[in-house]
Amino acid sequence: MYLAMLRAKLHQARVTAADLNYVGSISIDTDLLDASGMLPYEKVLIADIENGSRFETYIIPAEAGSRQIQLNGAVARLVSVGDRLIIMAFAYMAFPPPQGFAPCVLVLDEDNRIVQRIGEKYSG
């Protein structure tokens, strides 16, 4: 049996832009991707703290150091600039999960800077 386990999370990421006319996805600063272990084109589950919306999309890399979190395409209708998001990536793991497994959680401030790290990147 395999379980879908949270492996990486960006907590309280702030939406910096929303572009309805772009072909889907979420753009995330590559520095945040590197720090969390998330990958370009990986599927993510997103929860909007402000309005309760939950949706899935895939990651595209944004410029390193830009602190960009931009929703693109149809999901741009579900957020507003400034909304706080929880961005979650999962991995399938054999049951039981590895001893001591914990996800990498990055808590971000209002400018999408890392203010707290819980756990380490999952190396599978």
What does this structure look like?
It is a single chain. The chain is globular and about 45 Å long. It has a nine-stranded mixed beta sheet. It is built from one helix and nine strands, in the order βββαββββββ. The mean pLDDT is 95. It is mostly beta strands. The chain has one domain: Barwin-like endoglucanases. The longest helix has 7 residues.
Short description:
With 124 residues, the protein is mainly beta. It is built from one helix and nine strands. A hairpin with a 5-residue loop joins strand 4 (43-48) and strand 5 (54-62).
Layout: helices, strands, pairs:
Blueprint: E1 2-14, E2 17-19, E3 25-29, H1 30-36, E4 43-48, E5 54-62, E6 69-72, E7 84-94, E8 104-108, E9 114-118
Parallel strand pairs: 1-8, 2-6, 3-5
Antiparallel strand pairs: 1-7, 3-6, 4-5, 4-7, 8-9
